[in-house]
Amino acid sequence: MLSNDVDLKTLIGAFDWSSTSLGPKTDWPAHIRSAVALILHAKIPMVTLWGQEGIMIYNDAYAEFALKRHPASLGAPVREAWPEVAEFNDGILKTVLAGGSTSFKDQEFSLLRKGIAEQLWLDLDYSPVIDDAGSPIGVFAIVTETTAKVKAERRLAAERDRLRQMFEQAPGFIAVLDGANHRFEITNAAYRQLIGHRDVVGLPVRNALPELVGQGFYELLDNVYNTGESFIGSAMPVLLKRSSDATAVERFVDFIFQPMRDADGYVGGIFVQGTDITERIATERALQVSERQFRTFAEAMPNHVWSAGPDGQLDWFNDRVYEYSGTARGDLDHGAWVRLLHPEDVAEAVEVWGEAVATGESYEIEFRLRRADGTWRWHLSRAEMLRDEDGEPHRWVGTNTDIEDQKRDRQQLQDSERRLRLSQQAAGIASIEIDLATDCILASDSFWTMFGLANEGPVSAKDIEALVVPEDRHLISTAQSRLTGTAALDATYRIKRASTDDIRWIARHIEVLRGQDGAPAKIYGALRDVTHEKLAEERQIMLTHELEHRIKNILATVSAIASQTLRNTDIETGRNTLSERFQALGKAHSLLSNTHWTSAVLADVVRVATVPLPVARIDLAGPFVQLGPKQALSLALAVNELGTNSLKYGALSVPEGRVNIAWSRSVSGDGEEQLRWSWTESGGPEVTAPTRRGFGRVLIEQVLAGDFNGTVRIQFDTSGVECVLEAPMPDLTSDEQDIK
């Protein structure tokens, strides 16, 4: 395993390149070595992509860029190293390996460098790596991350837009006047609104607003410009025309004339900022009337109603608050209201209220209030800032609504939903909801995991249908069957998981919810991954058939051994011989059971078959060879026969006798691999050939030879018995491995 703490030169030298299309590093041509040397000496992130797979070799700077993708990316195809941009890299390989070059500036990507998606921008330059014949064999890439630059540029542009927007949308009027004649340079929307949207930019104030003559404003501007002292006007009346040919009307304004100085301190212009307060003055009396109406309305409400000044100090409560809390009027004013709050809720309530007052945003929070009898009940508190027509904060108005019962019910519902969710997760059940108006699916977390998708909110049912294998799509619902309510309520089908491409079996049940018109409106469903059940079912069927087949074969073998053993022999001898043969057969069966009857190692077969023999005088030698079931059984029986005869009549019947069991592998002239196995006795009594052929010899010469598709030779030399098996190497893929 490569370590990300080692420099790339060392990692590249240690990597097993023979496992890639580049081949061993010692065989690399000069152009590959030169390209790799070039990037290793570079200080900027560089990477080469070799061949159609885009095998990656990069430098230390690129490793720092790749973060957790390093060192696994070294020597990997680029599609596997960066799966989230696989299509992009496919296009690069296609273009550059065709001889082209390409580059990208501030290209946006979403990469998983740290295990989670992050947005970043890159400058990318791609050019071909040419071999000695002038053909493109790889891609040379320079990677420069520009995320910080892009974000900074966007922040700067946003800040400029924000400043322009703030100036233009400022609630007060703003203008900038230039020079001694007070030429309009800039006006905002509020100022243009004040002067009737006349186009005054570029005009001196005396030409732009001639109706100001005699009202003193020209003189005020001249004085500010000449003295450099600002002027503040409060509720000053001014006669202004709403258009150039209209009659001037009186407005009231608060404003400031602020001199603007250059770098040398000289006044070069005047900044005008103010507020048209005409409507505010006109509505003050109306606000007083409205205040009386509000309090009358608030006292009639069953809720707690309260109000506060713009500074957030509570100064009024309706009678419901005092009745609930058992306090007297005035006891809760200013900050004293927090005495009604549960101690655990005070800090958050005060913090949220402070933020609302500071920002003028809506206030909303849930907290417990102490009732006069000492009990605590949950309340939802909400407040809004009322503003005058100039947008200035006027008063906070809030309500407290008792939600104790709703909160208890909501908690019970959440507990129920949590129990349902946990039970579904434990049972591997996913839930879905299909809105038939949009045919979009809203699903539980288990659903996205089941289908191998990221949970990014509602998804089109059509997209989910695409994951169903084509052969099973007739089993699922369609947009038409969902709309008509004719979709099958239960279905079992296969999907191809989006994230892993593996096939999963899904069982689902749906219920149709109909609207008031009787037409289907929504579909609710439950899904379960039944892949393991399906596989278990298929394996059970296979095992049943296999067991039936094995039993028939075993019974046939046992029957043959029994009939041949008991023929032409007395009962006691036959019983002992039959027992020995069955024991040898049983031991071979045990070996095969360990591999689910697929194969057995030749050495293991011989060892278990010689267990009853004096193994200290038996030598075993040979390479690793795997036998099929039928070869394993017949060899075990043959070794048992040879061993039994050796104990009775051969080398193992005397203390100095020995047996050598050896096997070897070789290749014949026609290229086929051959197996030679032999049993050779020595040091025993003189051996003579038997006068008749018993079942044991038939078993060895015919059954063993037949099961190995080879030849068996038994030699009865005076020095001892020798049995030699020569046969093709067993083919474990053959259908002929069944025991006959």
Brief overview:
This protein is an alpha+beta fold and 740 residues long.
CATH architecture of the largest domain: 2-Layer Sandwich
- Number of DSSP helices? 21
Residue ranges: pLDDT <50 for 5 or more in a row? 549-566, 734-740
Placed side by side, the strands forming the largest sheet appear as 18-17-16-21-20-19
**Major β-sheet annotation:** 6 strands, antiparallel
Q: What would CATH call the class of the largest domain?
A: Alpha Beta
Instruction: Classify the secondary structure makeup into a structural class.
Output: alpha+beta
Terminal residue distance: 48 Å
Q: Give the total of beta strands.
A: 28
Average residue-wise pLDDT: 86
Radius of gyration: 47 Å
By CATH, the topology of the largest domain is Heat Shock Protein 90
Count of the separate structural domains: 5
CA-based shape: elongated
The portion of residues assigned to helices is 25-40%
How much of the sequence lies in strands comes to: 25-35%
Q: What is the CATH superfamily of the largest domain?
A: Histidine kinase-like ATPase, C-terminal domain
Walk me through what this model shows.
The chain contains 21 helices and 28 strands. It has 740 residues and is α+β, with helices and mostly antiparallel strands. The protein folds into 5 domains: 8-151, 2-Layer Sandwich (Beta-Lactamase); 170-276, PAS domain (Beta-Lactamase); 282-402, Beta-Lactamase; 410-529, 2-Layer Sandwich (Beta-Lactamase), CATH 3.30.450; 539-737, Histidine kinase-like ATPase, C-terminal domain (Heat Shock Protein 90, 2-Layer Sandwich), CATH 3.30.565.10. A 6-stranded antiparallel β-sheet has the order 18-17-16-21-20-19. It has a 5-stranded antiparallel β-sheet with strand order 2-1-5-4-3. Helix 17 runs antiparallel to helix 18 and helix 19 runs parallel beside helix 20 (629-648). The two termini are 48 Å apart. Keywords: ATP-binding, Chromophore, Flavoprotein, FMN, Kinase, Nucleotide-binding, Phosphoprotein, Photoreceptor protein, Receptor, Repeat, Sensory transduction, Transferase, Virulence. Residues 105-158, 234-289, 363-415, 489-542 form the PAC domain. It is an enzyme of class 2 (transferase). Pfam families: HWE_HK, PAS_3, PAS_4.
